[in-house]
Amino acid sequence: MSTDVLKVKQLKKAFQSGQQQQAVLNGVSFSVHEGEYVAICGPSGCGKSTLLNILGLLDTPDSGEYYIDNLLVSDMNAEQRAQMRSRRIGFVFQAFNLIDEYTVLDNVALPLKYRGDSIRQRQARALECLEKVGLADKAALFPNQLSGGQQQRVSIARALAADSGIMLVDEPTGNLDSKNGDAVMALLADLHQQGTTIILVTHDPRYANMAHRQINLLDGQVVSSTSAVQPLEQET
Ligand SMILES: Nc1ncnc2c1ncn2[C@@H]1O[C@H](COP(=O)(O)OP(=O)(O)OP(=O)(O)O)[C@@H](O)[C@H]1O
Predict the structure, then answer these.
(1) Where in the numbering of this chain does the ABC transporter domain appear (predicted)?
(2) Whose CA is closest to atom 18 on ligand 1?
(3) Are 202 and 170 in contact (CB under 8 A)?
């Protein structure tokens, strides 16, 4: 039986817009099983990034419940949330969010700094992750010496470094041409095959179809949750 790694119940979030409150999430509920690949889809402005930021513990809902590994994170204090984030969540952003002054290796090693690993352990792990994304030979370079597609692969290596098992991916191809976009999506499919749970926000229906399941948001609610035509291959 599959285990829920993430579960949200009746999430609500509103933002102040001038004099008015704009309800962005209006009672969103779903769960994600371990090892699933889920795409969150919906029109621009429907709240996809807001939802992903809440799932990634970068933002808090106004109400509702959020569980990671069956633990209620919406009730945790800031320190507990930070610990949960560094232990369980890897984030990949559209804009890569790499630190220009750090080498590629140091960017990937950064999430490990908060876990008490030695420098040698951090660098060895970072190199291992760079190997997984095919960029070990770029370890000593700086981000601006890489192409956009390579930078996104570095940011995926960084998300892998902490071995968190859950990867939240927000429009990873938004700043890439189609060739680099396809390479990044192929890498995500590979990581999923190796067991990573992936939650992807994308505008591109072609990429959304690579996911195991699509959760469609409209007007702040989940309007449908559809499985891909091809179910995931089951191990025999
Ligand atoms: N920090 C904020 N303050 C005020 N309004 C916000 C904030 N963040 C998001 N919003 C508003 O919430 C709504 C949803 O934004 P969000 O970025 O989650 O949508 P999205 O579905 O990811 O959009 P897109 O597909 O265009 O990236 C938008 O109307 C946006 O203006």
Answers:
(1) 6-236
(2) 47
(3) no
